Known about the structure:
With about 290 residues, this protein is an alpha/beta fold. Helices cover about 50% and strands about 10% of the residues. The chain has eleven helices and seven strands.
Amino acid sequence: xxxxxxxxxxxxxxxxxxxxxxxxxxxxxxxxxxxxxxxxxxxxxxxxxxxxxxxxxxxxxxxxxxxxxxxxxxxxxxxxxxxxxxxxxxxxxxxxxxxxxxxxxxxxxxxxxxxxxxxxxxxxxxxxxxxxxxxxxxxxxxxxxxxxxxxxxxxxxxxxxxxxxxxxxxxxxxxxxxxxxxxxxxxxxxxxxxxxxxxxxxxxxxxxxxxxxxxxxxxxxxxxxxxxxxxxxxxxxxxxxxxxxxxxxxxxxxxxxxxxxxxxxxxxxxxxxxxxxxxxxxxxxxxxxxxxxx
Length: 294
């Protein structure tokens, strides 16, 4: 059995970015951390960065139900009767681009990780959370409440995750298991670099005539977003820790300034919201490119 301090927390997607920093922050606060990674043992993983004290890597692929079940069984065995303090559903991918040009495989990957993976984790780990008077922390995105053009896949997946969170919160209320949503904005991690590379690969493989239809819009959006400074992942990690430690946690935490701005815009009337998005992204005066014959 692990030496209990303030409790044990499982963080998915702990191989980099927000996951690694969150694991570090939790260890510093006295928690034992199970770091879910697809390939344990790497020097850049959470155990490699933090050393052995307070953290254990667990092989975990949230898109594979067998892997999730094996991880649940392994953690239950290591806990030896103790439950979990929290499950942090942090594993996520970001798929972007014009919906017309996003490959079906990328759409499936988007939902497999961000939505179905989180649901699989909840099903597998609820027994440990019930036994540990634990809570669930789901990592969303501002686009879950405010859909953004050319970010339709990530917007839809996070909207689905937020809906699942809202339903689950009521379903689990008899056991007093809080379901918390933490919303980071743009964060300085590799997820955006990987997303841009995947989007460019999809564009390169698409019909050039279709790509040309969106060239003006994509250039305008890139220009509008150029210079935006992402927040450090430590800010998000601190918010996750606060959500885990709060005696009466809020249902939703906005971790960064841009996430709070998105939240304000999301509450505007639909027509005004669309006009504001078009203006801010430089899309207001763009004229359509003639479409090629079908």
